[in-house]
């Protein structure tokens, strides 16, 4: 009996450590709440045991993922967990035989899809994107995209050809994005109301499936609404997303000569000097001077809040040839290995490189002043 009590007391600190992570950001379900909630949204669920060493090691990453996705109520996905030592019935029903087991449940379905990849954030987010976009889009085999009630679904095979001539209002979106889901019926209504207008097409493209197109048009967040004329990005819509305002914008853009010529005017803004890089040009960009790099995910709430500050920071160093302010989208397949190699564990991760070597990770306040001082301090040291 003494030995049993001794073992229990020896693991109490461990159980306290586990409980510190409980319900921080992820939602904890019981046998009853699991069956009630699982069909209401897409769910990604971790089945675990508090004593499991792999679960303890993975728990902080799961909470990071939950913080990024559960932080925004408009997202149609929930990151959750089930303790199989207290709710063994649901774990038995879900055929859980090892810990941790991660399963993705699509909205309205009770059978989950087991995640079998490596448990790092880039791999996990790629898996989430694949599950969310599956079944969302069935490409038309023909070269010419066909309008459904005025709305045209584009893909990488027909996008460039479609927008090469004429005027087009295009929604760049992601299936998991809550704001995109909210806009969807209004966008369909807009397309329907302009169905007979030959001066413009209303279209959309899924950026999680056709990333190269969205990268070429410098799409940084979802939804992004771009006015494209003869293949060139002319304007980015920034108004209210109701039907009347969207339609008024279209009518204005169709009817003004300024819009037709706007693409010929040089314009310096955060879109044209975005600092976005990929694995292909990463080494070339960091090999000389100082490079301050933001590794991010477009759906991450913290990344979205940092984005305008990061753009201003880039502008402040635009005249300094020694400094580059850059960013890498870790959800893109082309950047997955890079983010793994650079040991990106959460979003956003801010790393500073000197002459091609990573020398520091920034973990301070994300205010413009503090970020600027951090980079400037390293710049002064180099100049000395």
From TrEMBL:
CC terms in the record's Gene Ontology section: endoplasmic reticulum
Pfam family, one: Thioredoxin
GO MF annotation list: protein disulfide isomerase activity
Extent of the signal sequence: 1-20
SUPFAM superfamilies named in the record: Thioredoxin-like
Coiled-coil features, chain-numbered ranges: none
Stored PANTHER family: PROTEIN DISULFIDE-ISOMERASE C17H9.14C-RELATED, THIOREDOXIN DOMAIN-CONTAINING PROTEIN 5
Protein name per Swiss-Prot or TrEMBL: Thioredoxin domain-containing protein
Source organism: Phyllotreta striolata (Striped flea beetle)
């Amino acid at each position: 009996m003494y030995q049993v009590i001794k073992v229990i007391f020896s693991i109490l600190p461990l159980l306290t450590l586990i409980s510190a992570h409980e319900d921080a950001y992820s939602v904890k379900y019981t046998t009853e709440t699991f069956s009630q909630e699982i069909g209401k949204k897409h769910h990604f669920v971790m089945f675990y045991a508090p004593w499991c060493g792999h679960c303890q090691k993975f728990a902080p990453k799961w909470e990071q993922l939950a913080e990024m996705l559960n932080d925004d109520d408009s997202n149609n996905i929930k990151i959750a967990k089930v303790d199989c030592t207290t709710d063994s019935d649901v774990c038995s029903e879900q055929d859980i035989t090892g810990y941790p087991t991660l399963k993705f449940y699509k909205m309205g379905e009770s059978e989950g899809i087991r995640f079998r990849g490596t448990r790092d954030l880039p791999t996990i987010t790629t898996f989430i994107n694949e599950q969310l976009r599956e079944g969302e889009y069935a490409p038309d085999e023909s070269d010419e995209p066909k309008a459904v009630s005025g709305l045209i679904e584009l893909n990488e095979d027909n996008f460039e050809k479609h927008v090469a001539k004429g005027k087009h209002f295009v929604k760049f979106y992601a299936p998991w994005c809550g704001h995109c889901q909210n806009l969807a019926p209004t966008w369909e209504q807009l397309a329907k109301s302009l169905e007979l207008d030959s001066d413009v097409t209303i279209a959309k493209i899924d950026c999680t499936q056709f990333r190269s197109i969205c990268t070429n048009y410098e799409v940084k967040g979802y939804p992004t609404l771009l006015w494209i004329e003869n293949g060139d990005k002319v304007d980015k819509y920034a108004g209210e997303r109701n039907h009347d305002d969207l339609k008024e914008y279209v009518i204005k853009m169709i009817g003004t000569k300024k819009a037709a010529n706007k693409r010929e005017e040089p314009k310096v803004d955060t879109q044209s000097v975005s600092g976005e890089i990929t694995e292909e040009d990463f080494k070339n960009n960091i090999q000389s001077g100082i490079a301050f790099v933001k590794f991010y995910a477009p759906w991450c709430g913290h990344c979205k809040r940092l984005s305008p500050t990061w753009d201003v920071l880039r502008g402040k160093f635009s005249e300094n040839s020694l400094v580059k302010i850059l960013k890498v989208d870790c959800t893109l397949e082309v950047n997955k290995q890079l983010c793994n190699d650079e040991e990106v564990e959460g979003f956003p991760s801010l790393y500073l490189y000197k002459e091609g070597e990573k020398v520091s990770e920034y973990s301070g306040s994300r205010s413009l002043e503090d970020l600027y001082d951090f980079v400037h301090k390293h710049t002064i040291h180099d100049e000395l």
